[in-house]
Amino acid sequence: MNLVYAARSKIPSRHANAVQVAHMICALAPLVDSLDVCLPGGLSRRFRLHTGTWLSAYGRKLPGNMHVHFMPDGPDHGFEKRVLAVLKEPELIFTRSPWLAWKLVRADVPVLFESHAVSRDAAQVRIPDFIRALNDSRSGAVVAISEHIAQEYLAGGLSPERVLIAPDGVDVEAFAHPASGGLGRLFGPVVYERPAMVYTGSLIPEKGAAFLAEAAVRLPHLHVVVIGGSARESARLAADAPPNLFTHPAVPHKNIPAILHDAAMLVMPYMPTGDLISYMSPLKLFEYLATGRPVLSADLPVLRPFLRHGENCLLFAPGSMDDLCAQAGHILDMTPEALAAMRTRTDLPTWENRARTILDWHRALRKKAGA
């Protein structure tokens, strides 16, 4: 099979979508004869590709059967239109772009569309028209990263056989057995003077980094560490911060495992509401669990399929400072035996299994449709 993967994700970058795309294309490549990857980019990314450093920030190497095509981005779906102009009857197209998927599925080209937020999809296509085109096609289908996304498409009339729920994955080995000293390399030995509560990821409001910075005042016995965002965003978060708050801009993703392993606890301080809160399948969820470190998380419906209070995490009411601080105290008071029990890793979705599941499912769909 010749597979084309197209996404408007700039690799490398500090954003989670780049992490997801980098790992997915590397997981898909061994499962197909050839993989053409279409991404936005210019000379700097071509240079990284030429020197073999393009995927180094993710601890990956370019598969031998992968061909990368960098295309200029632009307004009015400029990137997607360039992808359409160069496609030469591929057997299957995998894309994160709803506009590109809609155009292709209307032409009855085999398409796998990966949805990360229905609200964002609706900004590019009319969802009822998109669903109608998917149902009328021979092999158009939706890969939903969370159950909530799948349910919204099903409620809109998408045939159940055309949607697969496939949460994001994790490189289990990288996070289970990293090098040590990740926090020390960023902040020096002072960071080890108190137990560290660590957050890695975006600094957008709904992800709760600002809430965590406020919590540092209530948690003087901890070092609260927030790693993510741009240099400007990180500096803004650190302004007027208490001395036990440590902030740093986003680091290469391959450095994250060593950072997480230095933590006394890993926190997901998501807010109760936000554009992405009900849709997300956060990468950090599986990365945190893969480390075996204690996980402290806001209790959200989208996370409940993976988190069990008292078994593999402690949960707190989203946005509740009192509850966050109380649960952090519970982790610090746990006996070594209780911590060991909570650190026991369960089966986690790997990128390789995710890629294989998606392709096998779509092959079955195409076979049933006679495509």
Quick recap of the structure?
It contains 16 helices and 13 strands.
Task: Describe the protein's architecture and organization.
There is one protein chain. Helix 4 (98-106) links the parallel strand 4 and strand 5 (111-115). Helix 1 (16-28) crosses helix 16. The chain is built from 16 helices and 13 strands. The strands form two sheets. Strands 3-2-1-4-5-6-7 form a seven-stranded parallel sheet, sandwiched between helices. Helices cover 39% and strands 16% of the residues. The chain is globular. The chain has helices at residues 16-28, 43-51, 78-86, 98-106, 118-122, 127-136, 147-155, 172-176, 182-187, 209-218, 231-238, 256-260, 283-291, 321-333, 336-342, 351-369, and strands spanning 2-6, 34-40, 66-71, 92-95, 111-115, 141-144, 163-165, 196-200, 223-227, 245-248, 265-268, 295-298, 314-316. By secondary structure, it is α/β, with parallel strands linked by helices. The longest helix is centred in the last third of the chain and has 19 residues, at 351-369.
Number of helices: 16
Major β-sheet profile: 7 strands, parallel
**Strands in their spatial order, largest beta sheet:** 3-2-1-4-5-6-7
- Following the backbone from N to C, one meets helices and strands in this order, namely EHEHEHEHEHHEHEHHEHEHEHEHEEHHH
Distance between the termini: 14 Å
User: Helix share of residues?
Assistant: 25-40%
Which structural class do you get from the secondary structure elements?
alpha/beta
The Rg value, from CA coordinates, equals 21 Å
Residues in β-strands, percent: 15-25%
